[in-house]
Amino acid sequence: MRLVVGEHILDFSEKTYIMGILNVTPDSFSDGGLYLDRDKAVTRALRMEDEGADIIDVGGESTRPGSEAVPVDEEIKRVVPVIEEVAKRVKVPISIDTYKSRVAELAIQAGASIVNDISGLRFDRRMPDVVARHGVAVVIMHIKGTPKDMQQNPTYTALIPEIIEYLRGGIMIARRAGVAEERIIIDPGIGFGKTVEHNLEIIRRLDEFTGLEKPILIGPSRKSFIGTTLGGLPVTERLEGTAAAVAIGIFNGANIVRVHDVREMARVARMADAIRRGLVA
Predict the structure, then answer these.
(1) DSSP string for residues in 237-251
(2) Running DSSP on this structure, what letter comes out for residue 183?
(3) DSSP conformation class of 19
(4) H helices then E strands: how many in the chain?
(5) Given phi > 0 = left and psi -120 to 50 = alpha, else beta, which region is 172?
(6) b or e along 193-231 (b: 16 or more beta carbons within 10 Å of the residue's beta carbon)?
(7) CA distance 102 to 241
(8) Contact 248, 268 (CB under 8 A)
(9) pLDDT digits over 184-229, tens only?
(10) Model confidence, pTM
(11) What angle do CA 161, 16, 173 make, to 5 degrees?
């Protein structure tokens, strides 16, 4: 299975790909405020590429549980200058983490070649057209509710089938808009309208998503389900838990892992690939 991303072709028979997180926000749950300055953000992007990131994912709005939406103009002001500068200096693809079509369009014009949409193309009706018109790749993620209310007692009758159906619907939305099949990625949305038990079940049963025949992205990095599972650990002490989630996710079918700790998780991915598929660099 391959993914066409701008001038890049990601071949998932070769390796698991690392998506490095670059939050240009004051309030993200893990690294809020660290990279609001453009120069610091660019330096971080370059460092992630050097540490093994295959994709740089730039976001200008925190979507942590309970978060409020950021005005479009403010989000644009945060991400576009960073993407413009990063695009000049890195060789890997850049992703824009947004569900707003206007932000996505300007980010694409600045150099992004992937749209990472937490709503699975549901929150902004113009988003599918923007993705199709610009010929970029798209991550279709599952979410139950919105970031503001998604963790208020999320319940499911059948967790995995319901997520699969939502993702299948997102794929159909993309197809109808004209998005090419080889530019669609799926993400079950760990932490987005899920309990601790739901998140663990998604990773345990990740292989069931392979039936959608799309590359699978997971984003467990430093999330609260890890802290809770390990006895209430703070964000700063979730590295080992993240490594376990990443390794098991890869073993169960993940093709892309979205992480904060790029160097460490790139090593985890290489080891997991070597064990699972005999892919030794």
Answers:
(1) G-HHHHHHHHHHHHH
(2) G
(3) E
(4) 9, 10
(5) alpha
(6) bbbeebbbebbeebebbeebebbbbbbbbbbbbbbebee
(7) 36
(8) no
(9) 999 999 999 999 999 999 999 999 999 999 999 999 999 999 999 9
(10) 0.94
(11) 40
Catalytic residues, which ones? 223, 258
In the chain the first and final C-alpha atoms are separated, in Å, by 19
- What top-level class would CATH report for the domain 2-277? alpha beta
Lowest mean pLDDT among 13-17, 39-43, 145-149: 145-149
Q: Which of 11-15, 126-130, 200-204, 267-271 has the lowest mean pLDDT?
A: 11-15
**Would you list the domain boundaries of the chain?**
2-277
- Range 267-271 contact pairs with CB under 8 angstroms and sequence separation of 24 or more: 267/52, 268/243, 269/15, 269/16, 269/18, 270/15, 271/247
Q: CA Rg, the chain, in Å?
A: 17
pLDDT for position 36: 66
